[in-house]
Recover the amino acids of this structure.
């Protein structure tokens, strides 16, 4: 499992514009594995990305939208993508101009691999 | 009050030249007759947002008030190439057509504008007047509204609250889509949300989703990623997109899960433009 996860993260991290790819437990926000640029704080990324996803999941459930599957957040200096399967969250941090379509598909494929 | 807001918007533009605050700023300066400044900010906004219909509209209004109607017409026509249902541009071109006494063109443009925003009282009055003039000039009957359409009477009675509720209606089409403008506390400012059972649930949905903006801001601050620009969430039954608007407000678009994600993003951009213009006009 660890080898598969690490290989999957390595493939995600190799995509254009990706600065970090990590897996974290959604319930406590701790990183399980990460491939990240040296200037990226993987612990902080895991914590805040999963917290945001958790909050979004609660809001979506309360609003009647059902289970949350994919979150992407565009900011001035980067893009954040989060998907989950069970308690595992896959998180990508990218450059602002990274291709959202390509990364969305890659994340869905990665999710199937690690599920 | 105006001066304070103008100052705030100028500050925002100085901090962030890509901010959409130039739209209400230009409109306020124009209303105060400060045309040179208004034109300068409008051009600066257009440099950053050349594909934003509202930006061309902002400049066109300044040009009209400053007496340059030819240039204004060019700007509004360009805006309509970007967004054929852009209501303010249709109205502006309709006004210019009426001024040059091309009543047929004026009627056609204003009718399209009214279709884009049925709750606009002022537009209904203007269209009524143009149709009356057209009737007088040609002797032929020109209907106030399409046959069998009783909506016109209701339009005339519509209130500002109706206008707010209908703010996004013309963008959303007939699909299972909705849009809301929420203030910084998650309270609904504009838009409406009717669920599958016919119940109005805008307040509930707004309350649940409004807090996400704060969470996103906090996360991005901690990660050093700057201000958030948009958020897209795919859930089991819906795709939801959010974007920050003026004064801490948030625009939300929700669409059925089978709606293309790219279309939801596009709707969000259009809803944000409309909300920004509406907030500027309401200020």
């Amino acid at each position: 499992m660890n080898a598969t996860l690490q290989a999957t993260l390595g493939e995600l991290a190799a995509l254009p514009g990706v600065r970090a790819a990590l897996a974290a437990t959604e319930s406590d926000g701790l990183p399980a594995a990460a491939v990240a640029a040296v200037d990226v704080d993987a612990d902080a990324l895991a914590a805040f990305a999963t917290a945001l996803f958790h909050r979004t999941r609660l809001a979506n459930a309360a609003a009647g939208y059902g289970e949350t599957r994919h979150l992407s957040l565009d900011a001035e200096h980067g893009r954040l993508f989060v998907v989950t399967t069970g308690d595992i969250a896959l998180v990508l941090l990218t450059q602002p101009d990274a291709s959202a379509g390509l990364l969305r598909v890659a994340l869905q494929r990665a999710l199937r691999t690690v599920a | 009050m105006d001066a304070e807001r103008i100052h705030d918007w100028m500050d925002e533009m100085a901090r962030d030249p890509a901010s959409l605050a130039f739209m209400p700023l230009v409109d306020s300066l124009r209303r105060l007759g400060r045309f040179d400044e208004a034109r300068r900010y409008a051009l600066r906004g257009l440099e950053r947002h050349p594909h934003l219909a509202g930006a061309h509209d902002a400049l066109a209004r300044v040009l009209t008030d400053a007496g340059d109607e030819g240039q204004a017409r060019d700007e509004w026509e360009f805006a309509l190439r970007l967004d054929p249902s852009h209501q303010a541009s249709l109205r502006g071109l309709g006004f210019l057509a009426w001024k040059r006494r091309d009543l047929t063109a004026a009627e056609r443009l204003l009718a399209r504008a009214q279709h884009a925003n049925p709750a606009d009282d002022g537009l209904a009055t203007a269209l009524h007047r143009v149709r009356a003039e057209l009737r007088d000039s040609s002797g032929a009957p020109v209907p106030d509204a399409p046959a069998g359409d009783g909506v016109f009477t209701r339009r005339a009675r519509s209130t500002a609250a109706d206008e707010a509720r209908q703010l996004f209606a013309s963008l959303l089409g007939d699909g299972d889509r909705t849009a809301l403008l929420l203030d910084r506390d998650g309270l609904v400012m504009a838009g409406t949300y009717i669920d599958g059972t016919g119940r109005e649930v805008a307040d509930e949905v707004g309350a649940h989703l409004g807090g996400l903006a704060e969470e996103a801001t906090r996360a991005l601050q901690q990660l050093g990623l700057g201000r958030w620009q948009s958020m897209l969430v795919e859930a089991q039954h819906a795709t939801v997109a959010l974007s920050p608007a003026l004064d801490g407000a948030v625009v939300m678009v929700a669409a059925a899960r089978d709606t293309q994600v790219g279309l939801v993003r596009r709707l969000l951009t259009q809803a944000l433009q409309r909300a920004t213009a509406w907030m500027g006009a309401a200020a």
